[in-house]
């Protein structure tokens, strides 16, 4: 995936490159002599509020996306960070990939509702038998009044 250009989330949802905010800083960790001089850490931010790309989606998908991302927003923006590579270009690609994954998860339809079922007769009998065995073990530990214990 290219490090610049439109961000293709789905066939219907493409984020314009003008809506993406990039920020670069020095990353910690391995990097040799260039670690103190190269801004390889990447922060990619996208603000859904007022996004022209988001406005092109149907209203139901807009609401789903904003509702699911509500808890992940940092000052109104979705922010992803990448600093695992030594090269800024690779970190930019990694940040774009992470943002795409996060937006696809937010746009995904909800899973089908689970239909509750009753436990089988055999599972109920096994559970009750286990309870009887456990009760018997605990009953054997009790101190009897006639055993001279107080």
TrEMBL record:
<protein>
    <submittedName>
        <fullName>Ribosome-associated protein</fullName>
    </submittedName>
</protein>
<dbReference type="GO" id="GO:0072344">
    <property type="term" value="P:rescue of stalled ribosome"/>
</dbReference>
<dbReference type="GO" id="GO:0004045">
    <property type="term" value="F:peptidyl-tRNA hydrolase activity"/>
</dbReference>
<dbReference type="Pfam" id="PF00472">
    <property type="entry name" value="RF-1"/>
</dbReference>
<feature type="domain" description="Prokaryotic-type class I peptide chain release factors">
    <location>
        <begin position="13"/>
        <end position="135"/>
    </location>
</feature>
<feature type="compositionally biased region" description="Basic residues">
    <location>
        <begin position="129"/>
        <end position="144"/>
    </location>
</feature>
<dbReference type="InterPro" id="IPR045853">
    <property type="entry name" value="Pep_chain_release_fac_I_sf"/>
</dbReference>
<dbReference type="GO" id="GO:0003747">
    <property type="term" value="F:translation release factor activity"/>
</dbReference>
<dbReference type="InterPro" id="IPR000352">
    <property type="entry name" value="Pep_chain_release_fac_I"/>
</dbReference>
<dbReference type="GO" id="GO:0043022">
    <property type="term" value="F:ribosome binding"/>
</dbReference>
<feature type="region of interest" description="Disordered">
    <location>
        <begin position="105"/>
        <end position="150"/>
    </location>
</feature>
<comment type="similarity">
    <text>Belongs to the prokaryotic/mitochondrial release factor family.</text>
</comment>
């Amino acid at each position: 995936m290219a490090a610049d250009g439109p961000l293709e989330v789905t066939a219907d949802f493409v984020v314009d490159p003008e809506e993406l905010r990039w920020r670069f800083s020095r990353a910690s960790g391995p990097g040799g002599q260039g670690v103190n001089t190269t801004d390889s850490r990447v922060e990619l931010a996208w603000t859904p509020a007022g996004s022209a790309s988001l406005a092109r989606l149907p209203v139901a998908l807009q609401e789903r996306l904003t509702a699911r991302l509500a808890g992940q927003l940092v000052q109104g923006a979705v922010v992803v960070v990448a600093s695992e590579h030594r090269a800024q270009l690779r970190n930019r690609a990694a940040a774009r990939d992470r943002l795409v994954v996060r937006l696809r998860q937010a746009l995904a339809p909800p899973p089908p509702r689970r239909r509750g079922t009753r436990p089988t007769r055999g599972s109920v009998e096994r559970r009750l038998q286990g309870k009887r065995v456990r009760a018997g073990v605990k009953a054997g530990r009790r101190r009897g009044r006639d055993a001279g214990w107080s």
